[in-house]
Each structure stands twice: as C-alpha cells, then as structure tokens.
Amino acid sequence: LSYYEGLVFRAHQIVVPGSLRPLMLKYVHAGHTGVQGCIRRAKQMLFWVGMSSDITNTVESCTTCERYQQSNQKHEVMTHEIPTLPFEIVGSDLFHFQGDEYLLIADSYSGFFDFAKL
C-alpha cells in the first residue's frame, strides 16, 4: 500500500473507503455492462475487500439490467455442408448501390464471387 495526496493505493488501484463505495458502485455500473464488465472496469482503478461481490449484488438487483438483459438461452448450432467441388454450393444476394440493383453470386468452395447489374 502507498499513500499519495490523501489517497491510499494498492499498486495502481485506489483503495475505496466504505463511505464512498455506494458512489463508486453507481459510477462503475452506470453503463449497465453486466457483472463481468463492471468488475473489469472497477479493477482497472479501484479496490476494496469484497468489491466483486458488491458489484455482483448491485448488478443483479438492477431493474434496468433485468429488464434489458439479453437472454442466455442456448441456441441450436446451425451446421453447414462443406463443399468438395467448385460451385457445388453457391450463394446469391440482391443489393442496391447508387440507385442500381445488382445480383451477387458467391462460390462457397473457392470464395469466388461475381456480380451483375440487373
């Protein structure tokens, strides 16, 4: 630990006194980046015993985070056939560019693509 201009440091982190922890939790959680994001952000500059646990409790009790968190449901993995010959599997798409419409064709085997103005 070191002391500089009224602050106590643990390496590069400021040791936060108990009275300032609620304010620091508010700042760390302001971006609603989830538990791991908030912990990562806090560890860059702050330290107190039990900090990770306090952050976890703060994030888990946040109604905004609860409302907007992304679902952690597992999605079925989509598998794709691997081509063994050129032009065995091709993809196509239509797109607009500067007022014109184009057709794009791409070969999955070679990566070759071509497009034509329609």
From TrEMBL:
Assigned EC number: 2.7.7.49
InterPro entries with a match to the protein in the record: Integrase_H2C2, Retrovirus_Pol_polyprotein
Residue span, Integrase zinc-binding domain: 16-70
Molecular function in Gene Ontology: RNA-directed DNA polymerase activity
Any Pfam family matching the protein: Integrase_H2C2
Protein name according to UniProt: RNA-directed DNA polymerase
